[in-house]
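Recap for those who missed Tuesday's class. We walked through two folding examples back to back. For each one, the amino acid string is listed first and its predicted structure tokens come directly after. Nothing is annotated here on purpose, so try labeling regions yourself before you check the end of the notes.
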Amino acid sequence: MNEPTKDEFDRAVADSPYADLDIDTRVDYVRRDGQVFLCASQSISSGSLAFPQRSTCQMTGTADMEPICIGPDGTLYSFSTIHVSATRTVPYTIGYVDFPNGLRVLAQVRNIPGNMRCDTPVTLKADAASWWVEPNTHTDEA
């Protein structure tokens, strides 16, 4: 295998990493009919999902990501309460949330009941500044 030339190496470094996250103007969530949805993306060619939205597929490197909305309901996969932080007020809880389309997202978890466990249904919530999940308070039982 041949080593890349200096020009090839410099071009590769200049092109990396992909600038596919718009940090300054991205929108992470939207509200529709009183519900919160995350703004994600899905690759046309591979079906790969990403949050926050990206322009380049993380699996194939193809710039074919299309915007999609996910939520508002998911399932808490796992969670942990943080008790020591140099930058945030403690304690706070974070957890991985699985959404029905297969995307797993790390989220802050708020309004936690004493009996919360993995597999708890959660719902996306938001205010003007941020989004989070809360254990589901509605049931489908009659």
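Example two. Treat it independently of the first, because the proteins are unrelated.
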Amino acid sequence: MSVSLPVSRWTGVLLILSMVAAFVFGTSQASATINYGEEAAATAERYVGSPYKYGGTTPKGFDASGFTQYAYKQASTNMSIPRTTAGQFKKGKSVKPGELKQGDLVFYATGTKGKVSFVAIYKGDGQFVGATSKGVKVVKMSEQYWKNRYIGAKRLIQ
């Protein structure tokens, strides 16, 4: 025995008609823009907890520049950047600390004083996401270790 309710049939018809109307009349007003810097920073954050590996370029293990290269490629930017920290430092436009935006690359001298040797992705609020010797972490740039070793920043995403 089949029972059908007339109300449900009309509800379904109304639902379909409203979806058609929303599609026909609503599409011209909809617009979306992607902030590629935010996307790069968000992509980088997805890999927090990945281990450090010298020469590493995958979530199984990253070094600093392998991580930034991977995150940029995986983000909506699908951007290819150089493999090494020094190569990445040669790209983009220099950015002053007070003008940092999400997705900017931040550079540090963790070895020889004054020589760039570490890179990470600025995530906002004075923090970066980077593949440190303890794995991929979110780090406060104001921590004394990092503050003393800061070299500069570059914007590759406009």
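Answers for example two:
Residues 48 and 62 are 11 Å apart (CA to CA).
The mean pLDDT is 87.
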